[in-house]
Amino acid sequence: MNTVKTLISGVALSVALATSAMAAGVELNASSTGLALQGYDPVAYFTVGEPTKGNWKITSLHNDAMYRFSSEENKVAFEKNPEAYLPEYGGYCAFGAAMGFKFDGDPTLWRIVDGELFLNISSDIQERWETDIPGFIVQADANWEDIADKEPAALQN
């Protein structure tokens, strides 16, 4: 457990130093320009099965965040049912949410579980999360009710 606490502390420090402003509010992890998922196509995780960069010319605005898509078909699918493709915990790290924190999720460190997209902040964290995915999802779901509306930095106090 000390390894996890040390890892979380190190991540917290990194995030505190490098956290970008969020255009869409605290429930959504977006850049200061409002770009979600660092420009990755949210639909492609489900259709292609891997992170796929979206095209800056194919976009859709949802909850004040801009999503990019690799194809018009993916954009249409997203616009019909955005909730089916949005990452859990607003795109923040799933393991971080389980621990009660909000760390930037890395769109290249992902996993689909029961039809839901989860991101993590680093490969080490993702490996830890994968040791008990169901348990960490239960923890994160419970924590999310309390942390969704809070600024990431406020959770580190």
Task: Show the helix and strand layout.
Elements: H1 2-18, H2 44-47, E1 55-62, E2 65-69, H3 72-80, H4 94-98, E3 106-113, E4 116-120, H5 123-129, H6 133-147
Antiparallel strand pairs: 1-2, 3-4
Please tell me about this protein's structure.
- By secondary structure, the protein is of the alpha+beta class.
- The chain has one domain (2-156).
- 36% of the residues lie in helices and 17% in strands.
- It is built from 6 helices and 4 strands, in the order ααββααββαα.
- The protein has helices at 2-18, 44-47, 72-80, 94-98, 123-129, 133-147, and strands at 55-62, 65-69, 106-113, 116-120.
- Strand 3 (106-113) and strand 4 form a beta hairpin.
- The chain is globular, with a radius of gyration of 15 Å.
Short characterization:
Helices cover 36% and strands 17% of the residues.
